[in-house]
Design a protein that fits this description.
0% strand, 433 residues, mainly alpha, single chain
């Protein structure tokens, strides 16, 4: 007990120290070589011309292929430090590491609000902060993608919602901060935004009187419009259609559901071949996009083709969706470097850790909900974050949205099971006294 008091009195310092140590460790993994990607191309266009354009190559024109938030952030860094200079790449890596640290801090506050025990919640912070499972991806790939910011947003929103559930809301106006976060996430990452709105809907059902629901709906539409409308109006002017978030769902579906992937003996090679055939960042895919009439029209064509393929191949669709589930929850070796060589031993260990963590989290959640109904928010968020990526070809970057939450939940489940195991034993030992 004295040890617990010592740890509790220094808990904040311990947690902050672990998070800062995790940020410092990640910075050892940085690469000052720019990570070229669709987001990077748009950021360079913004930094040089001020236009959301050229997502596939210079001159490819206006785009809504990627959401606006990350290109704007990267372009801002490039305008200050220079395009792809070592200083700019170092700052982008620091931003990524810092956002990961913020998400760990929010996850800690969330689990503390849910009643996670002292030592397990500190252990979870240490595990997610210090274990180098995905440091290379976090520092080199995610510095130009939205995942670190999306994870920080959804964990922060969950922590806020759990607090509101506990202390009360006081009416529809009390939801404004949560709605603002969810609307921002919808612009940044539609799966994260949808998860946010689902979580808020559960909060409304649990804690707001039915007569106030129309006000909540009106407020939700108003707040969401404040974030989405400017981007939609920009897209209408630039692309001819008011695209609310991104134009690429047709392309994403077409990569994951097709004959090439269905009959693959080497899934990595099949995905590479499929990308080479249809993705506009490749010469063949770019020519196909231009022939279709541009980015928006091309995605519409790919979406129609894929839906026709699904209709004509129900059994093949089921096989591929089952494969996506397996790959998402048990990442194969090639996920750890889809376009290069892989250290088999390292990939096997990391894949096993990721699989065990997420399966412990998901399988243990019903037990945690039975003990504390507020865990329903985590189940809802995880379900919505996972489901869209089972329809497309999953990769590690897509499943990163659940990485921090599943790590904390896995530790929480193990700690709960251990406590349940120890309780009868301790009761039995105390009985003779």
């Amino acid at each position: 007990m004295s040890d617990d008091r010592w740890v509790r009195s220094r808990e904040a310092l311990i947690v902050i120290g672990l998070i800062l140590a995790g940020i410092a460790l990640r910075m050892w993994w940085i690469s000052l070589i720019p990570r070229t990607s669709e987001t990077w191309h748009v950021a360079v266009s913004l930094a040089t011309t001020g236009h959301f354009a050229d997502t596939f190559r210079p001159g490819s024109g206006p785009t809504a292929h990627v959401a606006p938030v990350m290109p704007l952030l990267i372009a801002g860094v490039y305008r200050i430090f220079g395009i792809s200079t070592p200083a700019a790449e170092w700052v982008l890596s620091l931003i990524s590491a810092g956002l990961i640290g913020v998400s760990i801090g929010f996850a800690y506050l969330l689990m503390r609000a849910l009643g996670m025990s002292l030592r397990p919640r500190i252990a979870a912070v240490a595990l997610v902060s210090l274990l180098p499972i995905q440091f290379s991806m976090e520092m080199r790939e995610l510095k130009v993608w939205e995942a670190p910011l999306a994870v920080a947003g959804i964990t922060g929103l969950l922590a806020l919602v759990v607090r509101l559930d506990s202390r009360g809301i006081g009416g529809a106006a009390g939801l404004v901060p949560a709605l603002g976060i969810a609307a921002f996430l919808m612009l940044l990452s539609p799966p994260a935004g949808l998860a946010g709105f689902v979580v808020i809907a559960i909060l409304v059902i649990r804690r707001i009187a039915f007569k106030q629901w129309p006000a909540v709906v009106a407020l939700t539409l108003l707040v969401t419009a404040c974030f989405i409308a400017p981007w939609a109006l920009h897209n209408r002017a630039a692309l001819g259609r008011p695209i609310l978030t991104r134009s690429d769902p047709g392309l994403e579906l077409a990569v994951g559901l097709n004959d090439t992937m269905l009959h693959a003996t080497d899934e990595r090679a099949a995905m590479t071949a499929r990308l080479r055939d249809i993705h506009p960042i490749t010469p063949k895919g770019y020519d196909a996009m231009q022939a279709a009439g541009g980015e928006v029209a091309y995605n519409a064509v790919l979406g129609k083709q894929t839906m026709a393929w699904i209709t004509g191949h129900p059994e093949g669709t089921a096989i591929l969706l089952a494969r996506h589930v397996r790959e998402y929850f048990l990442p194969p070796e090639w996920f750890f470097n889809p376009f290069g060589t892989v250290n088999s031993r390292s990939a096997a260990l990391r894949g096993a850790y990721l699989a065990v963590a997420v399966w412990l989290a998901l399988c243990g959640l019903p037990m945690q909900i039975a003990r504390n109904r507020r865990y329903i928010y985590l189940l809802a968020a995880l379900a919505v974050l996972v489901l869209p990526y089972l329809l497309v070809q999953p990769i590690l970057r897509y499943r990163y949205l659940i990485y921090t939450l599943s790590g904390f939940l896995a530790v929480d489940v193990v700690a709960t099971l251990w406590a349940l195991y120890r309780k009868p034993k301790e009761t039995g030992e105390a009985a003779p006294q």
